[in-house]
UniProtKB/TrEMBL annotation, chain A:
Signal peptide: none
Lineage: Bacteria, Pseudomonadati, Pseudomonadota, Alphaproteobacteria, Hyphomicrobiales
Alphabetized InterPro entries for the sequence: CheW, CheW-like_dom_sf, CheW-lke_dom
Domain CheW-like positions: 1-143
Coiled-coil regions listed in the entry: none
SUPFAM superfamilies linked to this entry: CheW-like
Protein name: Chemotaxis protein CheW
Domain of life according to the entry: Bacteria
Any single Pfam family the record assigns to this protein: CheW
TrEMBL record, chain B:
Compositionally biased intervals (Polar residues): 1-10
SMART domains: CheW (SM00260)
Keywords: Cytoplasm
Region of interest (Disordered), ranges: 1-26
Cytoplasm as UniProt keyword: yes
Subcellular location: Cytoplasm
Residue intervals passing through the bilayer: none
Organism: Kaistia terrae
Residues covered by the CheW-like domain: 68-215
Protein name, as recorded: Chemotaxis protein CheW
Superkingdom of origin organism: Bacteria
Residues annotated as signal peptide: none
């Protein structure tokens, strides 16, 4: 299986590339006034508004660094009825993919109290790599607000 | 740019140590350079520009095959010229031209050694009738970019010096425009005009050009 790697601070995280539609440069979003924490705005992707979530802001409380390696990962976010909506994730050091067996990822052993989007972990010489489940990135209420707001705007 | 200068400085030091793992050392050096490039701050307007780019409709693939061609763009004197990559062989460092006895006239300048192969070196400026004052033989203000260019077909290759090689430019064949009547002597060898970086560059007709070279050398 192929995974797309990014970093939150020094730690490595991966997303299943099946969930990734495209990796974009760190483009300027349109601010959504009153957007919940972690949401930095919306981008106009080929004429369609796509909400933009800053993973560093969400997890570490600081925005992602404005450098070339900070990119926007466009994921297919599953919503009801088997449909998907696009969701933009700002992440740092999106410069690598990782080819690993799905079985390499094992539960970290610390499930309680962890954010819901964190999945099992895989290890290598440098330490642990955490798998992020895109569908669990947004709490239900946030998802509701986000996609409804954009539907009204469009 | 402090990263770049740091890398340059460290090279001689590394060269003195025995090369136990040359591959590994190279890789580390490349990673270092790549990191410096990737971790550099965003240029001004970078984010806004990309936002505009992705806001536009994705170009729809119409199914019509766009015919792409490529040419090498180079400069002789004040003249920028393009030549099909099909006949372009090499752009080498400038090297001495050894003159040939009894060949003082015409377009032949002498013989050059390009990686062990002796090639006839011609004056492209003379052949095309480009301004002699800026000719490669007389020296030029931008000697740093001077290159010895090798072109040719299956039956032979020749070399000539140019003041600068820009690189390979890909263009759509339909974007070419006809040659205006004012291009001068080079017109005989120019098959079309090519738009490049806001300039119009003459695309040389490689067949006629090489035929003319063959006639002149013989």
């Amino acid at each position: 299986m192929l995974f797309l790697m990014f970093r939150l601070g020094q730690d490595r995280y991966v997303l299943d590339v099946e969930q990734v539609e495209e990796v974009l440069p760190f483009l300027e979003p349109t601010i959504l006034p009153g957007a919940p924490h972690g949401v930095v705005g919306a981008i106009n992707y080929r004429g369609t508004p796509v909400p933009l979530l800053d993973l560093s802001l969400l997890a570490l409380g600081r925005p992602s660094a404005a450098v070339i390696s900070t990119r926007v990962i466009l994921v297919r976010y599953p919503i009801e009825g088997g449909e998907t909506r696009r969701l933009g994730l700002v992440a740092e050091r999106v410069i690598q993919t990782l080819s690993r067996d799905a079985a390499d990822f094992v539960p970290s052993g610390v499930d309680a109290g962890m954010p819901a989007y964190l999945g099992p972990v895989a290890s290598d010489a440098e330490g642990l790599i955490q798998l992020v489940r895109a569908e669990a990135l947004l709490p239900p209420e946030l998802r509701e607000i986000l996609f409804r707001q954009l539907a009204v705007a469009s | 740019m402090s990263d770049a200068s740091g890398t340059t400085r460290s090279e001689p030091v590394e060269a003195e140590t025995p090369q136990a793992h040359p591959g590994r050392r190279d890789r580390a050096a490349y990673e270092e350079v790549a990191r410096a490039l990737l971790e550099r701050p965003l240029p001004p307007d970078y984010r806004a520009e990309w936002a505009r780019h992705f806001a536009a409709e994705k170009p729809i693939d119409t199914g019509v095959e766009v015919e792409l061609a490529s040419a090498v763009i180079f400069r002789i004197g004040e003249e920028w010229l393009a030549l099909s990559t099909a006949v372009f062989r090499e752009a080498a460092e400038p090297r001495p031209v050894h003159s040939l006895p009894h060949r003082r006239n015409g377009i032949v300048r002498g013989i050059v050694n390009v990686r062990g192969e002796l090639l006839v070196c011609i004056s492209f400026a003379t052949l095309l009738g480009i301004d002699k004052n800026a000719d490669a033989e007389r020296g030029d203000r931008s000697l740093h970019f001077e290159r010895m260019v090798v072109i040719g077909r299956a039956n032979g290759r020749i070399a000539f010096s140019v003041h600068e090689v820009h690189g390979i430019h890909r263009y759509e064949s339909r974007a070419l425009t006809p040659v205006p009547g004012t291009v001068g002597h080079a017109r005989a060898f120019t098959k079309a005009m090519l738009s490049w970086q806001g300039r119009t560059v003459g695309l040389l007709d490689e067949t006629r050009l090489l035929d003319a070279v063959d006639r002149n050398i013989a």
